[in-house]
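hey so u asked for the seq, here:
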Amino acid sequence: MTLTSDMKKTLLVCSAFLMGFCALAQENIYTLPLKSSGKKVRIALEEQRQLTSRASKDSEPLFINKTQIVFSAEDESGQADLILYSLDKNKFTNISMTKDRQEALPKMTDCGFYVSSLTQDEEGLQRLYLYPTNLAEPELLYDDLHPLLDYCWYDNHAVLSLGGEQPRTLYARSRENPILLATKALSHLAYRPKSTHISYLEGDQLFVLEIVENAIPALYTRMPEGTTAYRWLSPKLLLAANAEGSTTAMKRMPTGRYSAGRCLRRLGNYRISCTGKSRPFSIQWKGVRGM
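ran it, structure tokens below
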């Protein structure tokens, strides 16, 4: 796999990516460098750095810049809030501190000024909040779309995957006239960099969808068997991770076919989930006993 200059730049910006794994009932967060040398890319497990070590669950890590990470942290009662960790200062700061709602699925908006979060209150109602990165008061974005299963950002507007009796996926360009992208709830939503597409995963197939009314999905590629997470590094380069714990780099060829690079590192029997925006990216491993 030959790295493009864009890919090399991405790897420099993404000096580390985040890994959290669950040993017994505990789930912690680690950073690991993603390194490139010539045509090879590898995850430097030997340079892992543990950020959290608690009995409660820490999950869904997200880089918001090169030195700061946001993640969802549960306390002893199961209440989840968003925490900001500064790598350079080794400091934890609460972004949210609520008693009436759970905070999950943090993602970075395109403008870079907000961390969004899917919240759920005690009655099960879901809302999408925006938390300013300067730690100002949060803003309520959506409170009238239920149930919200997944979302991503495109051109500073949200793509929303909704379940219930009328499952659908919308591009919320405006509240009055959202664009209907699909008449089903799509999962593993992500924006494909430098394009007008979002992508989603169905089984081992990755589809792309134009941001237009009633768009026709196009099969982009078949992913490695058992893929449960992926992350775009550039418009033609992505990482895919599967339930067996293998992470594979894949590059789109001029013919439209995909060339899968060799396994970067096999991590054992791990369940994998993804979070974060394309630059920098983060992957969170939810593991089984032992590592």
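Residues 5-287 form a domain with the Neuraminidase fold (CATH 2.120.10.30). The chain has one domain: 5-287.
lmk if thats what u needed
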